Amino acid sequence: MLILAIDTALEACAAAVLDTDAGELLAQEQVLMKRGHAEALMPMIARVMLSADLAFTSLDRIAVTVGPGSFTGLRVGISAARGLALAAKRPAVGLTTLSAYAATVVGQSGTAPVISAIDARHDHVYFQIVAGDGSQLVRPGIVPIDEAIAASQFGAPHLVGNAAKILADRWPKDGPQPVAVDAQPAPDISWVAWLGAAANPETTPARPFYLKAPDAKPAALPPLAQAASS
């Protein structure tokens, strides 16, 4: 199976092509950035596909991170995945950034729970906990950091995500200490591809997974505009 993976959810723009039959990435590229995903993504995808020497119609599916993350970044990646999937007549699947972060360590951390945490600002984090075997302990949500710290009840965890260090710095000193802290700015694009290969297109659509409403809201109409629209 040939998978094009896309990630623009957080502070990186990344694309990769995975050949599951060969068990390897044919091409990949990642650039760390806080802004500019819209301008960077399509040229990056073109370079990755050229490096893999593939036509878009050769792909079996397209995988994309769907959140939580930057609202602007998510729209860029999901729109690109949907557009390419429509043009190539291939399915597009969506993977959460929390699961992509956890995938890098599930199965490698023994029995330690894996806590994925993404900075949601305002002293909150997007948050998920899975057991060492990948089974879910706490479903995805957005919680205050102090509430996330209560996850110490599950034992010494492996912390992953761009908020991993935030949690580690506030972790209670009298409880089980984290076995590892992986504060990566964005998920590993190779794992986005592998998760995409394992996903069921019927149950993992490429649509936003926000967990909270956008901070920015439409401005109120001025009085004259309100009158005209009534």
What this model shows, in words?
By secondary structure, this protein is of the alpha/beta class. The protein folds into two domains: 107 residues, Nucleotidyltransferase, domain 5, CATH 3.30.420; 78 residues, ATPase, nucleotide binding domain (Nucleotidyltransferase, domain 5, 2-Layer Sandwich). The chain is 30% helix and 27% strand. Strands 3-2-1-4-5 form a five-stranded mixed sheet, with helices on both faces. Strand 2 and strand 3 form a beta hairpin. Helix 1 runs parallel beside helix 2 and helix 3 crosses helix 6. The radius of gyration is 19 Å and the shape is globular. The C terminus is likely disordered.
Task: Sum this structure up briefly.
This protein has 230 residues and is of the alpha/beta class. It has helices at 37-52, 71-88, 97-103, 145-149, 164-169, 189-198, 223-229, and strands at residues 2-7, 12-19, 24-32, 61-65, 92-95, 114-121, 124-130, 136-144, 158-160, 180-182. The N and C termini lie far apart (54 Å).
User: What is the mean pLDDT?
Assistant: 92
SSE arrangement, N to C:
EEEHEHEHEEEHEHEHH
Question: CATH class of the largest domain, please?
Answer: Alpha Beta
What is the CATH-assigned architecture of the largest domain?
2-Layer Sandwich
> Low-confidence segments, ≥5 residues, pLDDT <50?
216-221, 224-230
> What structural class do helix, strand and pairing data support?
alpha/beta
What form results from the Cα inertia axes? Answer: globular
Number of DSSP strands? 10
Q: For the report, how would you describe the main beta sheet?
A: 5 strands, mixed
- The percentage of residues in β strands lies in 25-35%
Helix content: 25-40%
The helix tally amounts to 7
Report Rg: 19 Å
The number of domains: 2
Q: CATH superfamily of the largest domain, called what?
A: ATPase, nucleotide binding domain
